[in-house]
């Protein structure tokens, strides 16, 4: 008999359900008897002992469903060691609930913050298996996270739609893409949608270079320009500031996001009409794309197999086209960013895409 706890933590994404289904199908398909405890709303459920007993049939029909049947929440790692408003020690509470239910392991689906807490729980002696979810694709130790490809599809659709209207009106359009502090989503959707300028956090931009590209396109007869801008894009000047100076500057920042600042600058420097489109959380919503359904199912099934073998302390990831197990201590606390020297950046530049650098 295996007693498995499961939770989904942090911002949701597509294919969380597909991944959990993969784990459970693998377990149910084995000869092992299993009990599944689904903790509600992420770590919060484990802290406060809020769970639901789940059976194989609870995971039927959820392969194509976005979101998470367990609910999710953000439980920031930086305050995980602080007691809650009633003085409860959160780490201790999670351990207590784990031992009270006599769990064999916890399966934790999440991104960066989630992995820091998962690794802490491992250090505290709990058996942990994690699965890499996030539309940002910024998790260390895996070439790909599930949710990412679905989000690329949605952001690309947004750019495709903008293309036709931008062309009709001869406007400059900025499509702001999610991704937190990294540019994977913007770079991939930008290339897939044929953006002319792609601005990502890893390559700080010079507004003059951005404007030059727009003018150059104009001189060559292209009346419109599409920019795919990461929500975390940053100018060369801002990138030079210390963390403290940047924080101070942002206190008086008057724009809702970097795209609106860019729009004003481009409008002033070129005289062109500029519009901003922010697909926002649509990028995390809806049904997972077929790639993510397969990918998340595979990772889930491999996680199930690790549980059956009693191998804990790993994230199930994907490296060089193989599903691999990565020790949690290697994953936690590290961001996977795009190298400005990456071949995809070089190839984009070879095609004339500007990164504003
Ligand atoms: O990490 C996923 C993500 O969607 C990021 O791309 C984005 O910056 C953030 O979450 C938004 O967070 P929230 O849903 O809390 O607004």
How does the SSE layout of this entry go?
Elements (H helix, E strand, L loop, with lengths): L1 E7 L7 H14 L4 E6 L3 H5 L3 E4 L35 H11 L4 E6 L1 H12 L4 E5 L15 H22 L2 E6 L6 H9 L4 E3 L7 H13 L5 E6 L5 H5 L2 H9 L6 H13 L3 E4 L12 H20 L4 E6 L2 E6 H4 L11 H8 L7
Parallel strand pairs: 1-2, 1-4, 4-5, 5-10, 6-8, 6-9, 7-8
Antiparallel strand pairs: 2-3, 10-11
Helix pairs in contact: 1-11, 5-6, 7-10
Question: How would you describe the overall organization of this protein?
Answer:
This protein has 357 residues and is α/β, with parallel strands linked by helices. It folds into 2 domains: 2-147 and 288-331, Rossmann fold (3-Layer(aba) Sandwich), CATH 3.40.50; 149-284, 3-Layer(aba) Sandwich (Rossmann fold), CATH 3.40.50.460. It is 41% helix and 17% strand. It has 13 helices and 11 strands. The strands form 2 sheets. Strands 3-2-1-4-5-10-11 form a 7-stranded mixed beta sheet, sandwiched between helices. A 4-stranded parallel beta sheet has the order 7-8-6-9, sandwiched between helices. Strand 1 (2-8), helix 1 (16-29) and strand 2 form a beta-alpha-beta unit. The N and C termini lie far apart (58 Å). The structure holds 6-O-phosphono-beta-D-fructofuranose.
């Amino acid at each position: 008999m295996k007693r498995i706890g499961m939770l989904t933590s942090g911002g949701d994404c597509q294919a969380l359900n597909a991944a959990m289904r993969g784990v459970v199908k693998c377990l149910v398909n084995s000869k092992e008897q299993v009990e599944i405890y689904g903790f509600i709303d992420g770590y919060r459920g484990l802290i406060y002992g809020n769970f639901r007993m789940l059976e194989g049939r609870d995971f039927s029909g959820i392969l194509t469903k976005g979101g998470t049947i367990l609910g999710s929440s953000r439980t920031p790692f930086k305050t995980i060691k602080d007691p809650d408003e009633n003085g409860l020690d959160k780490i201790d509470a999670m351990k207590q609930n784990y031992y009270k239910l006599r769990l064999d392991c916890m399966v934790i689906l999440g991104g960066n913050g989630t992995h820091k807490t998962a690794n802490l729980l491992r250090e505290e002696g709990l058996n942990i298996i994690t699965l890499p979810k996030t539309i940002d694709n910024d998790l260390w130790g895996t070439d790909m996270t599930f949710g990412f490809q679905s989000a690329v599809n949605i952001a690309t659709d947004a750019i495709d739609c903008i293309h036709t209207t931008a062309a009709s009106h001869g406007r400059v359009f900025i499509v702001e893409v999610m991704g937190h502090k990294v540019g994977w989503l913007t770079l991939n959707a930008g290339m897939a949608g044929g953006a002319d300028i792609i601005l990502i956090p890893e390559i700080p931009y010079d507004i003059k270079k951005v404007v030059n590209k727009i003018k150059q396109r104009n001189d060559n007869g292209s009346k419109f320009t599409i920019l795919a801008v990461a929500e975390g894009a940053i100018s060369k000047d801002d990138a030079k500031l210390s963390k403290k100076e940047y924080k101070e500057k942002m206190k008086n920042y008057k724009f809702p996001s970097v795209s609106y600042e860019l729009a004003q600058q481009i409008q002033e420097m070129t005289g062109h009409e500029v519009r901003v489109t922010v697909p926002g959380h649509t990028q995390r919503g809806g049904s997972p794309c077929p790639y993510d359904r397969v990918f998340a199912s595979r990772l889930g099934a491999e996680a199930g197999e690790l549980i059956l073998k009693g191998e804990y302390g790993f994230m199930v990831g994907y490296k060089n086209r193989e599903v691999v197990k990565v020790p949690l201590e290697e994953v936690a606390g590290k961001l996977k960013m795009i190298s400005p020297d990456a071949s995809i950046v070089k190839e984009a530049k070879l095609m004339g895409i500007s990164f504003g650098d």
